[in-house]
Amino acid sequence: MDNLPKCGANYVPLTPLTFLTRASNSYANRTSIIYANVRFNWRETHERCCRLASSLRSLNIVNNDVVSVLAPNVPAMLEMHFAVPMAGAVLNAINTRLDARNVALILKHSEAKIFFIDYEYIDKAKKAIEILMSDFQMPMPLVVVIDDLDSPTGIRLGELEYEQLVFQGNPKYVLENIDDEWDPITLSYTSGTTSEPKGVVYSHRGAFLSTLSLILGWEMGTEPVYLWSLPMFHCNGWTFTWGIAARGGTNVCIRNTTAQEIYSNIVLHKVTHMCAAPIVLNIILEAKPHEQRQITTPVQVLVGGAPPPAPLLEKIERVGFHVVHAYGLTEATGPALVCEWQAKWNKLPWEEQARLKARQGLGILTLADVDVKNFKNMESVPRDGKTTGEICLRGSSIMKGYLKNEKANSEVFKNGWFFTGDMGVIHPDGYLEIKDRCKDVIISGGENISSVEVESAILKHPYVVETSVVAMPHPRWGESPCAFVISRKDSNLKESDIIAHCRRNLPGFMVPKKVEFVEELTKTGTGKVQKNHLRAVAKTFVVSDQTSKREKPRAYDQSHEQILALSRL
């Protein structure tokens, strides 16, 4: 058997770019993209990607150059997931909610050669480029403006425009050979909920295998109609930027994720699938009467980005959305675990079904192994659903590593495992459940308190819309839970109401010692609450053993309001 070598016929490097070629050949006339009044089929999308890749090469883009893009979920963003690597380059999709300085930091760190900018973000991009050149002393990348495809505005920043590059490119362009499937395909920056953002590099192999795993794990059939309610900049849309091509489906692109956009597109285009963070489910549930539409066929929703509370899952299922819960992180090419549903659970009461569905589930097929390990001895925790440890992963869907950050790489890659920084448990049936970020665990008098569990209990209150729980200083116990709560506008909730509710639903040591009502919770671009901001507020609170009270020096009040008013990333 040693005399049976690899050859071009029996060994082809894995890359999701093959999904586009196959879609063009097999599903040429199927609708590939819908955006407002714009329609493309898969033959046209393949040709447009070939043209753009050709134009990128003519602009002196070479293998492994970084091409950055700042854009919402528009057709150009989707096409660039194919066209940029087809040119041999690496796509860097930037979080549109970042401020100009953070955009500049990413352009500097990635050394982007070309910067594609949607017309909507021209002002932010201008400031970022100014910072890049003046503060960081870096050369200006080549700029290309993406105008609106349905309603062109004519806005420009320089001479180059996206559709111009598509028009000028060669439709017969042959993509650069992928000689090594370990070559980089994308560069994504973490959302920075617990630390500074880091550049995460994906390989062609990892992207290909993750895409297949999620299609199978979600049981996505052929010809799905997929609504882009998840930002494509978030882990490359959890790989569905490539995955919809693999299934010959239709991408329904929307510029803004609003209740009206979601409902109207679902009904108009008969949407079958969408992905979302829990915040998007809240947007759907809080839709005004004139924004709502009757959902006649259940929409399959893959939920991740933050642990969804069981009460939220129960509510969203009742209005026509069938939820599958996933867990992942940027470093794992998006979802790494999927809560595979078991038929026997259909007989359980609704509340119990929601509780089971809120668990993070089982490893996707491209993970060789998933485990929860004890911090001190690195041994696997018992499968009792109670003993917590750090969730560890290993497999082909894990990132290549952090760009230019050996220290961070050495911290997360240890003994053949990737350490996620998330705490969880394993239930007797093998399903994992996340309990918290390691940095978000509240240690009170030696007891570990999961902020996620406290949040789930608070969300059971009928007048609570959203909540986030963090640690606050306690003179006796070291730390105690502090809850930030958004209540319904028609309610008159008081701190005592929430505390009394928690006493009925939680052990005494887990009950928040302080409840702060807020109008908004500051979030990252992927819908995760920025708990570091809330912790800064909580540190200004003072509690005694009997009551909780707030310090009120003038400087505190100003700081408190500034922190709570921080704009979303």
UniProtKB/TrEMBL annotation:
* UniProt keyword annotations, A-Z: Ligase, Phenylpropanoid metabolism
| UniProt record, GO biological process | phenylpropanoid metabolic process
A GO molecular function term, named singly, is: (E)-caffeate-CoA ligase activity
Q: Which SUPFAM superfamilies match?
A: Acetyl-CoA synthetase-like (SSF56801)
Entry-linked InterPro entries: AMP-bd_C, AMP-bd_C_sf, AMP-binding_CS, AMP-dep_synth/lig_dom, ANL_N_sf
Q: Which Gene3D superfamilies match?
A: 3.30.300.30, N-terminal domain of ligase-like
Residue span of the signal peptide, if any?
none
Residue span, AMP-binding enzyme C-terminal domain: 453-528
List the Pfam families.
Answer: AMP-binding, AMP-binding_C
- Does the keyword Ligase belong to this entry? yes
Domain AMP-dependent synthetase/ligase residue range list: 22-403
Origin: domain of life: Eukaryota
What pathway is it annotated to? Phytoalexin biosynthesis; 3,4',5-trihydroxystilbene biosynthesis; 3,4',5-trihydroxystilbene from trans-4-coumarate: step 1/2
Membership in a protein family: Belongs to the ATP-dependent AMP-binding enzyme family.
Name assigned to this protein: 4-coumarate--CoA ligase
